[in-house]
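TASK: fixed-backbone design
INPUT:
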């Protein structure tokens, strides 16, 4: 690798719990409950003190105040696959190609402003997977640059990550720089994200520059297998669907 993943971040990364304090509970199962603040002991109304000779007591026992606190609630989308990539890499185009989700697609960065979930269907055996398209990552996302945290927390629940690269470099950036930066942002946000199974997918392979870039990319990152696709033209989509299905199954059996 050409850069040091362990390098010190420029600023202290707030991390998954943010700078808001400690995580007190994590609800991941349907029906799971957690008592955040206990209510106070209840009081007794005056009828509890009524006797035959004192039928209307003028006193009662007040209740005690319950616990109080300030807490942040965070919603994290649960999906099997998290699609991460630089703005304009084609994440939403890919989600449109594999599912019936219709996120906005456009040739400007930050088209997607909120995470979108699509359901990928495998008609032969009715299998289904959920894929989450999150807004584009940029350098400094872990520090909340761009849309930063607004989405990084969502991919923490995904079983596998797909790093989608614009292999044609249409925005004038080199795909290998994008790749390094993505890994760096993930690591700076939460190092555990780098332990998640991840797959590299090269998009926009229909563009003239893509083939040569892919060769260079493979030379630079020999260990990262890459799936070439052209999401905008439906090319490589079946292979991609197979890839994520096998990868999620593998991640399942590894965690079982
Ligand atoms: N040539 C080519 N263009 C593509 C392909 N896939 C997507 N695009 C174009 O790339 C641009 C960005 O696509 P989006 O799907 O909106 O990209 P995104 O990654 O979701 O972008 P953000 O939501 O801004 O992060 C659009 O103009 C797409 O038409 C492809 O396979 N080939
Ligand atoms: Mg998008």
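OUTPUT:
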């Amino acid at each position: 690798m050409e850069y040091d993943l362990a390098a010190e971040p420029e600023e202290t990364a707030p991390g998954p719990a943010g700078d808001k304090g400690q995580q007190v509970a994590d609800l991941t199962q349907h029906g799971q409950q957690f008592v955040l603040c206990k209510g106070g002991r209840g009081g007794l109304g005056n009828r509890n003190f009524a006797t035959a000779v004192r039928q209307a007591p003028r006193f009662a026992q007040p209740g005690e105040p319950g616990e109080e606190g300030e807490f942040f609630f965070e919603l994290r989308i649960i999906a099997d696959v998290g699609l991460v990539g630089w703005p304009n890499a084609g994440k939403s185009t890919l989600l449109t190609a594999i599912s019936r989700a219709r996120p906005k697609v456009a040739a400007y960065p930050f088209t997607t402003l909120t995470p979108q979930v699509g359901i990928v269907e495998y008609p032969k055996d009715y299998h289904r997977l959920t894929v989450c398209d999150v807004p584009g990552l940029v350098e400094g996302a872990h520090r909340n640059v761009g849309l930063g945290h607004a989405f990084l927390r969502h991919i923490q629940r995904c079983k596998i990550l797909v790093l989608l690269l614009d292999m044609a470099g249409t925005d004038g950036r080199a795909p290998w720089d994008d790749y390094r930066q993505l890994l760096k942002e993930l690591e700076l946000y939460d190092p555990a994200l780098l332990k998640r199974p991840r797959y590299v997918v090269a998009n926009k392979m229909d563009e003239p520059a893509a083939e040569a870039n892919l060769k260079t990319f493979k030379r630079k990152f020999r260990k990262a297998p890459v799936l070439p696709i052209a999401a905008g033209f439906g090319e490589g989509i079946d292979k991609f669907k197979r890839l994520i299905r096998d990868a999620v199954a593998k991640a399942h059996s590894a965690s079982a």
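COMMENT: The domain at 81-255 is CATH 3.40.50.300 (Rossmann fold).
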